[in-house]
């Protein structure tokens, strides 16, 4: 189940890769499948997922995406004792060990 969640994040929220000049100008959209997302870099939020034809990518990436979402996915796929012994630590809702 967790692997499917990650695959869906990659499929629906990841912005298409780009080649940028040194000053940040967009030279080429490597994958031309999402031409409406010209300002999108990294991952993005979706405007609505209730209707397939109305889903649009927003030009924003919440700060908690890396700090929480990807951290939880990472912790899900690692051996618990390799990272943090879970019998000694508890994670907050923001995925911080205490």
Structure write-up:
The chain is mainly α and 98 residues long. Helix content is 31%, strand content 7%. It has helices at residues 2-13, 64-77, 80-83, and strands at 18-20, 26-29. Strands 1-2 form a two-stranded antiparallel sheet. It is elongated and about 45 Å long. The relative contact order is 0.13. Mean pLDDT is 72; it is low at 27-37.
Q: Mean of the pLDDT scores? A: 72
Main pleated-sheet profile: 2 strands, antiparallel
Strand order of the biggest β-sheet? 1-2
Ranges where pLDDT stays below 50 over 5 or more residues in a row are: 27-37
Number of strands: 2
Please, how many domains? Answer: 2
Number of helices: 3
Write the layout of secondary structure elements.
Layout: H1 2-13, E1 18-20, E2 26-29, H2 64-77, H3 80-83
Antiparallel strand pairs: 1-2
Top keywords for this entry?
98 residues, mainly alpha, two-stranded antiparallel ribbon, disulfide bond, hydrolase, mannosyl-oligosaccharide 1,2-alpha-mannosidase activity, calcium ion binding
Task: Describe this structure in a few short sentences.
This protein is mainly α. It is 31% helix and 7% strand. The protein is elongated and about 45 Å long.
